[in-house]
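Why should sequence recovery work at all? Because a backbone constrains its sequence more than one might expect. Tight turns favour small or flexible residues, buried strands favour hydrophobic ones, and helices have their own preferences. The token representation captures these environments compactly. In the example below, the structure is given first.
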């Protein structure tokens, strides 16, 4: 089953990635308006980002869920900010109150850890803690009287109330380093990829599938998702004209580093993979634009799929052929593009996905 999610910015200051909303920005009415727009235009829900210095993501997700009907918040959360039992209880409560609409994105990347009392750890410790967090949360959702003495967490005789719907919210996870991929292969429901070319995604899907077998995964089969910016216009020419004009503005600003990358550890492995793509050319595959990464684009804004709705739907179908079944898309201005992409791209993509999978391309 394919999932189509959008993105809702979770910041105090307006202007996120060029968004033009100012009046009411950061209010519940504004965030709810975006979620209701997503509901009306074909989206199942949206990712809500996390990070110290932003509003608390879980509070925002809860408030939006209370004002919507079908919208599924994909709430990003961090081990270290949350303790497993605290999070399991909060998530079970929102899962219950929303009728099972909560989705969760587990984040282990960079943040201002000391600001909320967390400590810097080496990669092995960081991802070891994340894996333990995910495993313990699942146990708290599905078992009673849980007692665990782990390397990072401990609980005694712990039962979460209310009980979750089924086995609980689905856990999305990202990360491209070997340590991150081992966590995904063992503990995640959905591995999220940034907007890499098809060959890179194919390589990672194959590696992760093999890794799930090597690690004797005891969960349902790992699924895969794509988080990327889409610049969709009526025609191919209009889309590229708008995309290149936006890059010209970014280039003229002289700021070639996204502030999210300005961290002591430097870019994470997944982000570095995206930045390295520019060396292969400005346009890869059919319409993957790599230039944004040279001029300050970070995360999902590092690469864009550019073109008409037909162009971008065809490109996303090729990702689906590789095993991608969760699409987390976005563009700005958020409200306008929620409508435009929902109305023009999603019907075409759904139609393409109803057709049999394409045959794999022959090797070059």
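From this structural description, the recovered sequence reads:
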């Amino acid at each position: 089953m394919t999932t189509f999610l959008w993105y809702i910015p979770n910041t105090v200051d307006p202007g996120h990635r060029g968004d033009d909303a100012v009046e009411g920005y950061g209010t519940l009415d504004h965030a709810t308006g975006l979620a209701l727009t997503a509901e009306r235009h074909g989206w199942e829900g949206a990712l809500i980002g996390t990070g110290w210095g932003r509003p608390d993501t879980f509070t925002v997700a809860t408030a939006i869920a209370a004002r919507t009907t079908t919208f599924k918040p994909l709430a990003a959360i961090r081990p270290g900010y949350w303790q497993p039992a605290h999070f399991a209880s909060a998530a079970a409560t929102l899962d219950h109150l929303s009728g099972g609409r909560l989705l969760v994105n587990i984040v282990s990347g960079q943040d201002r850890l000391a600001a909320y009392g967390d400590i810097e750890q080496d990669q092995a410790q960081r991802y070891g803690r994340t894996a333990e967090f995910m495993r313990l949360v699942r146990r708290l959702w599905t078992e009673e009287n849980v007692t665990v003495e782990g390397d990072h967490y401990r609980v005694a005789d712990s039962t979460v109330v209310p009980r979750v719907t089924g086995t609980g919210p689905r856990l999305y996870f990202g990360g491209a380093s070997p340590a991150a991929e081992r966590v995904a292969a063992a503990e995640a429901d959905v591995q999220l990829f940034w907007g890499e070319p098809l060959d890179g995604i194919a390589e990672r899907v194959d590696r992760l599938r093999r890794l799930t077998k090597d690690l004797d995964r005891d969960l349902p089969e790992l699924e895969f998702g794509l988080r990327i910016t889409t610049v969709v216009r009526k025609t191919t020419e209009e889309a590229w004209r708008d995309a290149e004009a936006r890059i010209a503005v970014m280039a003229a600003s002289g700021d070639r580093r996204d502030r999210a990358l300005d961290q002591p550890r430097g870019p994470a492995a997944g982000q570095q993979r995206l930045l390295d793509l520019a060396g292969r050319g400005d346009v890869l595959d059919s319409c993957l634009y790599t230039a944004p990464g040279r001029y300050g684009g970070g995360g999902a804004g590092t690469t864009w799929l550019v073109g008409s709705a037909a162009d971008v739907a065809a490109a996303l179908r090729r990702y689906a052929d590789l095993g991608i079944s969760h699409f987390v898309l976005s563009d700005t201005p958020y409200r306008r593009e929620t409508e435009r992409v929902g109305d023009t791209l999603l019907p075409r993509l759904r139609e393409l996905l109803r057709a049999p999978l394409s045959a794999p391309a022959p090797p070059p």
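A few observations help interpret the result. Residues 142 and 166 are 8 Å apart (CA to CA).
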